[in-house]
Amino acid sequence: MEVTGSAGAPEPGEIRNLKPCLLRRNHSREQHGVAASCLEELRSKACDILAIDKSLTPITLVLAEDGTIVDDDDYFLCLPSNTKFVALANNEKWAYNNSDGGTAWISQESFDVDETDSGTELKWKNVARQLKEDLSSIILLSEEELQVLIDVPCSDLARELCQSCATIQGLQNTLQQVLDQREEARQSKQLLELYLQALEKEGSILSKQEESRAGFSEEVDAVDTGISGEISSEITLTSQILTALKEKTAPELSLSSQDLELVTKEDPRALAVALNWDIKKTENVQQACNQELALRLQQMQSLHSLRNISARKNSLPGELQNPKRARQDPT
């Protein structure tokens, strides 16, 4: 990549806010670093730096990652620093380049790419778009989705959300806090379960429960021989959800809100057969998932309410400008 200095000196007394950008021609990998205060200046520098014939003007600037045409100065100023641009001369059409990165590969009909890498990239971008539409949806994300956004390079996430790196760093810190809070809740629940188990042993309750469970298991085994195949075929949960239910200490904290809803709607008998659990344990897990889902929805409603209150407070000063008051009679 070649870095080119600013062309032309500013007028005396003129103050310009320059945005660093990366320029290249179509079908080219060679990039040039430039700084411009507006789109017109960037177009002019593109002609000079990329040696574009003046007869091929006008120059159209598009985002290198997906071919979006940038023809508005306000939008240009909102883009992050070092955004990649492709300069198109006359009627030239944008073409995807492997060095662009971003989401441009989605519009490409066919080219070789590693399936695992593309799937991971698509996943974090889909989650990022959810946050862009509504930041409070952080509450509804699964632990896996939270970790995916935390692991994304700050510059890539900033480009996707059209925010500064400092803002995105703060967002990733918040995501890490949410993830840590869920881990703390899981550990607290695990400690509580250990404490309850200790109480059961002291009160000789555990032996009675074992006897009842043994009798129940024999009954379930007898019933399963006739209907287990039929019930298991009714399970609609994915293997990923079933694995989380089996292996996680507090699975309700690991699942997304959508997955929690699926678990709560599942038939307890069918779920018990699929997980090889007894009915009581299955119902307890479904109840925990239902409580976690209700808590998240309540948090979402609280955030929306606070947002509405904040919006009303912000509009209040404008409404109270030049208030009309009745004059008091001096007598």
From TrEMBL:
* Region annotated Disordered, chain positions: 311-331
The record's annotation in SUPFAM superfamilies points to:
C-terminal domain of DFF45/ICAD (DFF-C domain), CAD & PB1 domains
SMART domains from the UniProt entry: CAD
What subcellular compartments does it reside in? Cytoplasm
| GO BP term, example | negative regulation of apoptotic DNA fragmentation
Known partners and oligomeric status: Heterodimer of DFFA and DFFB.
Q: What is this protein called?
A: DNA fragmentation factor subunit alpha
The scientific name of the source species is: Prolemur simus (Greater bamboo lemur)
Q: What is the lineage of its organism?
A: Eukaryota, Metazoa, Chordata, Craniata, Vertebrata
